[in-house]
Each structure stands twice: as C-alpha cells, then as structure tokens.
Amino acid sequence: MPEHPEYFHGSRAPYGHEALIRRGVTSMHTIVCVKQVLDPEIPPAKFKIDPGTKQVIPPPGVPPVISVFDERAVEAACRLKDKHKGKITVISMGSAKAADVIKHALSMGADDGFVLQDEAFEGLDSFGTAYVLGKAIQKIGGYDLVLCGRQAADWGAGQVGSILAEILGIPVVTLACAIEAVDKTLKVKRMVKDGYEVLEAPMPCLVTVSSEIGLPRLPAGMALMLARKKQIPVWKAQDIGAESSQLDKANAHTEVTGLSVPTRKTECEIIAGNTPGEAAANLASKLIKLI
Amino acid sequence: VNPVSATYWGISGYAIFWVLFAIAIGLFVQRAYFLFRLMRLGNPENRFDRIGQRIKTMLVEVVPQWCSLKTVTQKDLAGIGHALLFWGFSLFLISYIIFIGLAGGLGLSPVIEGTPFETVYSSILDIAALWVIIVLIWAAIRRYVVRAERLQISAEAAIILIVVFCLMVLHICIEGFGFAGSGVSKDWPPVGAAFAHFLSGTGISKSALIGVYRGAWWLHYALILGFMVYIPRSKHLHVLASLVNAFFKPLGPKVVLEPIPLEGAETFGASRIQDFTWKDLLDLYACAVCGRCHVNCPAQLSGKTLSPREVIHNLKEHLLEAGPELLASKLNGKAEASLESTGETPAEIQAGTQPKAQPKTMIGDVVTEEEIWACTTCGACQEVCPVNIEHIRKIIDMRRNLVLSQSKMPESAQLMLRNMQQRGHPWAGIQSMRLRGDWTSDQELKVLAEGDNADTLFWVGCTGALVERNVKATLSMTRVLKAAGVDFGVLGEAETCCGDPARRAGYEFQFQIMAEQNIEIFKSHDIKEIITSCPHCYNTLKHEYPTFGGDFRVVHYTELIADLIRQGKLKLTNELNSKLTYHDPCYLGRYNSVYQEPRRILQAIPKTKLEEMERSRDKGFCCGGGGGLMWIEEQPGTTKINQMRLEDVLKTGAETVVTACPYCLQMFEDSIEHKGLKDSMKARDLVELVEAAMQQP
To answer: Which of A2, B169, B336, B624 is most buried, taking the most CB atoms under 10 A from its CB?
Structure first.
C-alpha cells in the first residue's frame, strides 16, 4: 500500500512531491505478468506445427517477442509510474529466453524483473500458469496492483488474469482501456461490446489490459542500454514454494486434443465500374450482401 | 596630401582618426566577444585535429573562391558574381590597411606616395572598383528586379550593397579630387586619373577640390569603420564566420554523427539551442541566407514545410534572442548551486518565483516537428552550401531528442523503430512475406554458421533480403560475384539491420546496440572485407562502424564490379539495346563520391545509351527514401518526392532507370506503378543489368 496516499490527487502531484520521492517514500508498486510468444508478424505461410507433439515449430532466425497485450500492460504500468512514481516489477514464466521480454519491459521503464523457469512449468494450462505466477507474486509481496494482458497473443485463452486474481484473493477488472489511481482506489475504464464502463476497485487489485489503452512506448532512453546488460534472476519451483502436486499435468483442468494450421481460402474479385464512384457503389452493394 | 595630417576645428586629424578607430574597434570587439561567448554555450567537440590540413583546406576553398564557384549552374551564375566581389573587395581590404592605416593614420604617406607600388596597386584597385560596381548592379537587379527564388528581400542585403557601392564611388572620387586638387597630372591609376583630368577641365578652384577630397576621404574612412561595426551585427557576419567555418569543416565523411555518450548525459539530442555543439552554433553565424539549400532540398521542392535555409536562419535568430539570458544564467550557475545545497528542493524554489513569459521552445516554436521529420538526409543542402554548414546532424540531433527523451514521433516512424528494436530490421508484417534467411534457400552459397570463417562477406541488407523485388537483385548479385570468381560468404538468417534507419530517425541507442552486435558477428567470422549492395549499409559500415571498433574494408558492389571489369575478370558481352538513365543514390554519390564507377559499368555494357538527367551526380535529386523516410509516411498534401524524380527520368526519354540502391529501386517501382507506366518504364538495379550482359557461364 502507498505509505503516503494523500499525495495522489489525480493527475497532478503537489509541489514537494518529488522531494518526498527522493527521500525514499515509495508509492505505487505494480507487478506486471508478461509472456514471450512467437512473433505474430511472421508471415502466415511460415507458420508450422508438429501435429504429433501438438507444438509450434518456430521458424529459424525469428526472435520471439513480448505478447502484444502484455506489452500494453507494461505501458499501462509505466503511465501510472509517470504520474505517481513508484515501482514496477515484471515477471515472466517461460524459457531462459524469457529474460529478453523482461529486459524489454525494463527498457520501457520497469524497475525489476524475474524469470520463472522450471521443467515443471512447461506445458502448464491456464490454471497451472496462474498458480505459478501467484506464488511468485506472493513471494515479491507488497504490491498495489497486478497487471496482465487481456490474453496471450499465441493461445488467446484470456483466463490467467482472472484465475490469478482468484488465487491472490483480490478484485479483478478485465479488458481495461484506461486506468487511473485515486487515493487507494483504482478507476478502470473497461471495454464492453457496445462501448465502455467505468469501474472502481480498491487496491490491491488485478487488471487485465486491452489494446485500446494505446500504443506502447518505444524503449528509447538510457534504460534501453542499461537493460541490455542486466542479469535477470531466474526463480525455480522451489524458489517460489510451488508445490509439485499443483504442477502435475494430471491435475490440469484443460487438455490440448489437437492443433492445426487453419486453411485459408482466398478468392479475389475485381469490382469494376466505369467511374471510381460507380466502382465504389458496386463494391458497397456487394459488401452489404455479405453482411 | 594626407588629410589626416591636417587639423580640423583645431583638433589634430590624427586624434580624430584614432579616436574613431578606437570606437569602431571597440564596438567590433564587443560584438565579436559576445558572439564568441554565445558560441561557447554549445557542447564541446574536437575539431582541432590536423591543423595544417585545415588551414590548407580553408585557403584552397576560400582564396580561389571554390566555395561559391562550385555552386554555379547554367541557371544560377551568382557564384561568379560572389567570386568577383570577394576578390575585388579583398584587394580593397588590403588597400585600406596600406593606404588608410599606414599612409593616413600613421602618416607614412610620404613614403608610400609616388612609389611604383602605389601606382600599380591603385591601378588594379581602379579596375577592381569598376568590376565591383558592375557586380553590385547585377546583384541588385537579381535581388530586386529578377527576384531569384532562393533570395529573400531584406534590408541587410540592401544596406551592404549600398555601402559597398558608396565605398567604390568614394574611392574614385578621392583619387579624382585628390589628383585634381593637388595639381598632379598622371595617367595611372586610369579611372582616377581620367576623372582628375575631367575635374581640372571644369575650372573648379583647387581649394574647393581639396575640400571635397578631404570630405570624401573622411566619409570613406567613416564608412569603412561603420562597415566593420555593422558586419558582426548582420547576416554579413558570414564574411568572417564562413572563413572560420571552412577551417573547422569535417575533413572526412561529410555527415558526421557523434555517438551519444553513455555516461553523464541528462537529456539526449538537442531540445535547447545549447544542446548543439559549438561547431553547430558557428554554422549558424556562417549562414548568409543565400538560399541555395532552399532551392535544392527535396522536401522543400515537394511542398513540405521544411526549408534548410529557414531552419538555420531561425536557429540563429533564436540563439541571438535566447543567448543573453543563457549567458546570464550560466554566470549565475554557481550561485544557484549554492542555493540548492541549503536543502531547498528545486520544486520549492520554483514555487517561490513568479512564472515568467513562456520562453520559446526550440523544437516546436523555432523548428517544427513537421520540419524535423521531413528531411530525407539526402545531403543536397550540405553539398551546395558555400559555407560548409552541416544541416543534417542538427536535424538528427533534434530527432534524437524527440525519440529518446520525449518519445514523440510520427506513428509510422514508431512502428519502424519498434521493428528495429524487436525484430532487427525495419520491414515487418504484411510488408514482408519473407524471413531473413529465405533468400538463401536453394542457392549454392557459403552461409556462415557459428565458427565458420570467411575473408569476404557479402552483406545483403534488410531490403535486399526481405522485399521480393529486391531479392531478385540480391540473387543477381550472388551470380555475378560467382561468375567473377569472388569467394564470399553470407550471413543468411543471422544478418540483422546495419542500424542506418534507426540512426537517421534519431533512435541512437538502438543503432549503437546494432553496430556493436554486428561488429561482434564480423569479428567472430574473422571477416576482412565486406561487399554491400545497399549504399546506406555501405556508408554506415564504412564510416560509422569504425567509431565502435569495427574497422573493415568496405566496398560497394559498383566499386567492386567496376574493378572486376577493369581487370578482365568480368566480361560484359551481351548487347543491351536500351536507352537508360542512371539515378545517383545519395548515400553512394554525395555521401561517398562514387559517381564514376556505376557509369563506367554501364559504359562497359555493349550498346547501352546512357542519358544523364539534368539533376545528376552531386546535384542528383533524392528518391525520397533516405533518412528513415522509406518507412515514415510522407506528409499529406504534398507532392511525393519519388514522383518528382520519376518526372526527371521521363524527361530524358529513357526506357529504363538504373540505380544501385534498394531504397531507390523501391521508390522508382512505386512511382512507376503509381503513374501507370509499368509497360513502358522499367526500374532496374545496376547489378541486374550486369548479370544480363555478362557471359553466361
């Protein structure tokens, strides 16, 4: 919890606020969960899977990237930090390479990061993943806010955030497009089908972030250079006190029964017209039929 | 007769002479010292190396007036006028020291007068005065009647034309009235003597003639002093500053971008005038607002708001306006520091002082973001600048600030830079259906794996590896190299971007990371020589990697192929019966002066007819793709630069436009398609023509 919540007055901190920060007054502590995924920009024709092991075969020479929604969660955390100061901790469960996405978040403005890597973590479903993340978050402790992407860019299940909140026993708001901290309360604008709604939740709480929050910043300043050389600590199952029974695949709630690349059929039709206007009218009538 | 030796209203002429002189010198030094202090506000930069070479470069450029004569074109002869004015006025400047300073002020006229030296020198001056007057009239007509596009109407220009004109007329008057008044009859100096003959014939009394002579002499003297005081206070400061600027010009590559130091930097790039280096500020003094950059800038010519002339001029105005306060706060710096140590926080100090009127921000008020992002870094401005101003690095310094400190950039720029950071190349998503190493599949190539060594590396570049059209040229390149027996390796999927688009777009840290990584890769394969097909990679690897510890022999393929043809290792025998024109890529031509090699290759192909465009070689016009702008959306409502360049191509009547740069090739493909000329006009990479013309193995 912030030790001096009276210094949060919406967007503007009062004079002297910086001074308090300098004297070591911590404010908001945000933990962001990020995932490393296969680059979604890979041309579709290059996307291959192994139906036997039900796994994706990564194409050569393409570095994996931070999941796009998770990157926006980091952006949301950075914006809160820009306003209220404080600290951002980033965690990622994955391979040793996941250090790269932690570094990416550090170069955007996060302060600290950990990789959660263990053989036992491989192939976990959403419940198992949320359990591991929850254990790590409990180990870090002292947080006001946990942010996740609305879903992972690879599997797109969108479950981890909500399950994680359940495990941590804190309120959850999903699909956020704007987040604002007022005193001990978080004001969250969340996307719904035909617009948005504004919710308030007491901190600590968990929010999953949607892409409508806006473009993530370009990691550009000195942080980019510093993050590169940083050693990212790796936590194993025993480091976070994860029980092996919880990581047992036999206890998984979901199972992948098949994996295939969708076949896509493309048909091309040139809509003609004597004038551009006529062509546009023809196109419009064609589209109306399709809807 | 020396007018200074006379007394005026009981005061010695010498006293008047030296008092006036002291006042003028005082005013001159006061201003010069102020300008010097302003310049010192800039960041340090070492331009004091190779002093001897610098002096030589300066003299070679300025004395024969190569600086202004190099800019002369059929349409713009003003450089000749400048040279004549420079030489004429230089002669006068020397004469002022000898005939006014020594002869007049020091009273040495008896020693100098009547000597053959005086006769010869003043005869030369007479002729110089005539040509200077003619040039002044020509200049006035150009500026006020013809109204040349690059010139602006300014009072400063008019003042200087009038003052110099008066100096010339007074010079002749002094000679004429002086000779006639003192009754000297001689034939040399010709103009003065002829005027004296005429005056003697008018019957005016000698005392009146002497009176006019003295009046003219003192007026002349006063004008010279006034001129000296005025120069550092006007744009004519360039007569002094450009000389110094020629001394400090870059001796190596024309565009020098300094790496951002990783320690101690608080802000990155330039957001305030004092964030530039002193050399950048000296550049501002050197500008005479001649506008040659303005009429050669592709951004300006295509209707963007950017004008290099305005950028430099506005920065200078800003420096002069904001300078005094900056100097004052620099002086108070120590006082402020001691205040801070009392424990008060800056916020508390801020709260205590009344906010002043918002000072101008450099980025925004002086130079707009729109202007900063419109530059293609083509270098046309710097090439044509007679006073060695380095425009490009100022623009990149401001981009650095926008990107690194303010995170403000066009969305398209941000997308490109994100790709650079995450994917190691600027092309992504639907822009490329390929992966980096795809082009090497089914090819017999030495793809360097970890631990493999090669002396020579063919560095493909992002566009050549990822964009369908450019991959064709890349494959041509490998076949040509093999046919010529060149032993080379490629990096395949391990190759990343050289960093050029990141650096030009101000994303300096990403560039530095990429440079270091690439140098490490080159060293791990023990590479000695690198062949590049992209002039941007070429320039970066050749001129910018050495700063980061990467010293390799870097050649552009046009240099290599021209050499292979000369050695007879590559024989071009197939006829290429086509009328073509060659477009100089900026980073190959202007940046690296490779103009001859591509043309030599074309001439080696039987039956090619090369038609040069009007704007070619060092005056070549950009394709629009440099400086990261290949990926940054061109400002709406303006003409596309590649369309303008295609018009140049069409004027030659050529069927094929040949270039040696993947960006240029892309830009031409786009503009040809846009204009619906796909059937009649082809864009080709030079290496594709070489492959078509060579003996098939």
So the answer is: B624
- Mean pLDDT (chain B) is 90
Among the listed ranges A18-32, A190-204, B295-309, B574-588, which one has the minimum average pLDDT value? A18-32
Q: What distance in Å separates residue A21's CA from the closest CA in chain B?
A: 12
Higher pLDDT, B520 or B105: B520
Q: B403–A41: do the CB atoms touch at under 8 Å?
A: no
Q: Is B533 exposed, middle or buried (0-12, 13-18, 19+ CB in 10 A)?
A: buried
Please state the length of chain B. Answer: 697
Using the beta-carbon criterion (under 8 Å), do A43 and B424 form an inter-chain contact? Answer: no
Distance (Å, whole) CA B568 – CA B575:
17
CB-based contacts of B535: which residues, under 8 Å, 6+ apart? B556, B585, B586, B587, B588, B591, B592, B594, B660, B661
Any CB–CB contact under 8 A between A215 and chain B? yes
Q: Which residues of B touch A15 (CB under 8 A)?
A: 347-348, 350-351
Q: Burial of B394 by CB count in 10 Å (0-12 exposed, 13-18 middle, 19+ buried)? A: buried
Q: Is the model's pLDDT at B435 over the cut of 70?
A: yes
Q: Considering only CB atoms, which chain A residues are within 8 Å of B345?
A: 16, 18-19, 22
In terms of CA atoms, which chain A residue is nearest residue B427? A41
A217 touches chain B (CB under 8 A): yes
Q: What is the mean pLDDT of residues B50-73?
A: 92
pLDDT value for A103: 95
Q: What percent of chain A has a predicted confidence (pLDDT) above 90?
A: 60
Minimal Cβ distance to A61: which of B345, B403, B437: B437
Q: Report CB contact under 8 Å: B348, A15.
A: yes
Q: ipTM score of the complex? A: 0.81
Average pLDDT of the residues in B59-69: 91
Per-position b or e across A149-183, b if 16+ CB within 10 A of its CB:
bbbbbeeeebbbbbbbbebbebbbbbbbbbbbbee
Mutation target to probe the A interface, by most A beta carbons within 10 A, among B266, B399, B509 is B509
pLDDT at site B554 = 97
Of B640, B650, B651, nearest to B683 by C-alpha is B650
Please say if the pLDDT value at position B259 is more than 60.
yes
Inter-chain touch B347–A104, beta carbons under 8 Å: no
Q: What pLDDT does B32 receive?
A: 95
* Choice between B191 and B431, residue whose per-residue pLDDT is larger: B191
pLDDT tens, position by position, B325-351: 999 988 887 555 444 444 444 444 444
Pure H helices in chain A: 17-22, 68-84, 99-108, 126-140, 160-168, 222-229, 237-240, 244-247, 276-290
3-state DSSP assignment of residue B682: strand
Q: Does an H or E element contain B10, and which?
A: none
Q: Is B414 on the interface with A (CB under 8 A)?
A: yes
Q: Quick check: B423 and A17 CB within 8 A?
A: no
